[in-house]
Amino acid sequence: MKDWIEGFQASIDYMEQNLSKELSIGEIAKRAALSPFYYQRIFGAMCGMTVGEYIRARRMTLAAQELACSGCRVIDIALKYGYDSPDSFAKAFQRFHGITPAQARESGASLRSFAPLHIKITLEGGTMLDYQIAEKAPFTVAGVKRRFHAETSYREIPEFWGEWMSDRKGLKGMFGICTDMDGKTFDYWIADLYEPWKELPEGCGTFQIPGGLWALFRCVGALPDSMQKVNTQIWSEWLPALQGYTLAGNYSLEFYLPPAENPADTVSYIGIPLKKL
C-alpha cells in the first residue's frame, strides 16, 4: 500500500511542479506507474474531480495570487497558465473566483483558494466488498459505441444510456464496456454477448474482450447508486491494499442482470482485468 500511495502522490507533486507548463496525462500517470486510462478513473474516484478540473483549480488559485501580489500583466499571467488570450482567461477566472482579473487587484478582493492534494489512506470502519478473482475465456460482444472524453464522460455516458433506452436497436444492454483509445478519450459500448448466427442490428459492431484474470465485484441495490458506490470503493480502498496482482489491460466492464422487482435487490457487477505479479 505504501508504494502505491507514494506513487500516486508523486504524480500530484509532478502536476504541482509543472502547473505553468503543458501537462500530459501520459506523463502524469507514469509517475504513479499506471496507464492514463486507469489513472484518470482512480483519480476521479479518490479525489471527487477529474485531473483537468484539479489542474484548472490549482492554476486559477496561483493566477489569483499573482494578480493580487504582483504587477504582472494579465496577458502574461494568462499565457503562463495555459490561456491563449486575456478573454478566455478572464472568463475562466470569473467562473472560478466570481470576480474579474481586474477586480482581483483591488484591496479586499475576495478570492477562492484550492489547496494542493495530499493522498492519505486512513483506516476507519471496515466495509465489506464482495468480489472474486476468476479466469475468464475471451468473449465477443455486439453493441453500439460512442467515443467520450475523460473530462466529460461521467455526465455524458448516462445520457448515452438514456438515448439507447429510447431506441434499443434490438439489444438487452447486458454490458457497459470502457476501452481506452489514447489516454484522453475512450470508447464506451452498450452491448450484449455476440451471437454470430444472428444478423447485427443496424449501427452495431463487435468487440472482443481478451481472456485472462478478472476481479469481479458484486453490486446490490438500485442503479446507478449501487454501482457508483462500489466503483469508488474499488479504486480508493481495494486497489491500494491489493497484493500479488496488478491492473491489466486498458478496459473494464459493467455487467447488468435483469432488474429486480424491488430496485434495492438489483444485482450488477463491475469487472477489472488483472495479472499476477
Describe this structure in words.
The chain has about 280 residues and is α+β, with helices and mostly antiparallel strands. The protein is built from 9 helices and 9 strands. The chain has helices at about 1-15, 25-30, 35-45, 50-70, 75-80, 85-95, 100-105, 155-165, 225-240, and strands spanning about 130-135, 140-150, 175-180, 185-195, 205-210, 210-220, 245, 250-255, 265-275. Strands 1, 2, 3, 4, 5, 6, 7, 8 and 9 form a 9-stranded antiparallel beta sheet that branches. A hairpin with a 4-residue loop joins strand 3 and strand 4. Helix 1 (about 1-15) packs antiparallel against helix 2 (about 25-30), helix 2 crosses helix 3 (about 35-45) and helix 5 (about 75-80) crosses helix 6 (about 85-95). The two termini are about 15 Å apart.
Count the DSSP helices: 9
Number of DSSP-assigned strands: 9
Series of secondary-structure elements, N-terminal to C-terminal: HHHHHHHEEHEEEEHEEE
Task: Please state the overall shape, judged from the principal axes of the Cα atoms.
Answer: elongated
- The average pLDDT value, as a whole number, equals 87
> Helix share of residues?
25-40%
Q: Helix/strand/pairing class, anyone?
A: alpha+beta
- The first-to-last residue Cα distance is 15 Å
**What is CATH's topology name of the largest domain?**
Multidrug-efflux Transporter 1 Regulator Bmrr, Chain A
From the coordinates shown, what is the CATH architecture of the largest domain?
Alpha-Beta Barrel
- List the uncertain runs: none
Strand content: 15-25%
Which value, in Å, is the CA radius of gyration?
Answer: 22 Å
CATH superfamily of the largest domain: Regulatory factor, effector binding domain
